[in-house]
Specification:
mainly alpha, Arc Repressor Mutant, subunit A, 9 helices, elongated
Length: about 150
């Protein structure tokens, strides 16, 4: 297996500019190359030479690191919302608006507030008697007739 060359200062700067989500050059190879010190002509015409195998691997590694830093679990979010919702005033500066919003989000996460009630007729029909099934079917037919009129 061939030994890979270490990255040059320009390549490192290019990778930093290209992978920095807060940068105006994010995912823009030409602008990242110019900002890294490549000439405008070189940046426009020689991108294949800039995107060497080593640079591509370094970009992928940088993106994986960013993903690790921003990866958050539902459990971590719920834990933070709980701390905001139930924090005492002397422990931190949590105002009532923040507390209410945290409680609201926790309630939504737990499906405590529903705008629509979900029902499944398949589940209901398995627990219905034959008489109840016939009554349900008749009520559905009558409702369809009324809607059609």
């Amino acid at each position: 297996m061939a030994k890979t060359k270490p990255l040059t200062a320009k390549q490192k700067a290019f990778i930093k500019n290209y992978t920095n989500a807060g940068s105006a050059t994010y995912n823009n190879a030409t602008q990242s190359a110019i900002k890294a010190g490549y000439s405008e002509r070189s940046a426009n015409n020689n991108l294949p030479q800039i995107f060497t195998e080593t640079v591509v691997k370094a970009i992928e590694e940088a993106r994986q690191e960013q993903a690790k830093k921003t990866d958050v679990t539902a459990e971590e979010i719920v834990q933070e919302l709980r701390s905001l919702a139930f924090k005492q005033d002397q422990e931190g500066m949590v105002n009532n608006g923040e507390r209410i919003r945290a409680l609201e989000l926790l309630g939504k996460y737990k499906a405590m507030f529903t705008d629509k009630v979900q029902t499944s007729t398949a589940d209901q029909s398995s627990t219905m008697t034959d008489t109840e099934k016939e009554a349900f079917a008749e009520a559905s037919r009558q409702a369809s007739i009324k809607l059609a009129q």
